[in-house]
Specification:
The chain is of the alpha/beta class. It has 9 helices and 7 strands, in the order E-H-E-H-E-H-E-H-E-H-E-H-H-E-H-H. The chain has a single domain, classed as Rossmann fold, CATH 3.40.50.
Amino acid sequence: MSNLANKVVWITGASSGIGEALAINYSKRGAKVILSSRREEELNRVANSCSGETFCQVLDLSKTDDFERIVNTILNRFKRIDILINNGGISQRSEASKTTLEVDRKLMEVNYFGTVALTKAVLPVMQNQKGGHFVAISSLSGKFGFFLRSAYSASKFALVGFYESLRLEEEKNNINVSIVFPGFVLTKISQNALSGDGQKHGLLDNNQKGGISAEKCASDIIKGVQKEKHQIISGGAEKWGVLIHRLFPRFFYKILRKKSGN
């Protein structure tokens, strides 16, 4: 708790799921929490569940021209940003052959370009502070592709390349970078995912139904960030797929082919 007291933690995608759980957990640990997403009403609901100082800042990851103004608003209030958790984003549930290019572009625009743009808006703040921590929420789909997630997986792979490079470049400024690879987590990510034509998928995956809780995932993330881990893997049995993929790739893909994307 002591090293989080009065730390300023900014969380995108904070109106539900993992982001909501992170906000509540960080506030219990004494941090000052900034909650961002597109839905102001839901942000206020989450803020009311937090125990410490909070600030709700509406943010749309597709509207990158707003980011400089938003960062200045936060600095005027808190004077610094210690941790930025890039949790906001959208998913996809459709075969690549049935997914329009517009959907591919949408996911890259939000998950990759929006996240990178916000990081670049905050980066000078942390450089001037000579310290800070960026956390990027990727996915196990950012480690290896999976059924019905071609666009989502591509956007999460892209984040890994950017943040691994950023980590190397900013070590000189005492800036840490952690990349999180959640497996199946019981959230509304599948219901809110886009189908191949851009409509909302609207269905809860069986994989999600059996996933760990958002609270468990948030706890894993916070512990990993405190330990300054480069990679944080959270999930159930599926997280062992990372090790199997690395050591026994042919066996891994034999197993994967028997799985379902739903």
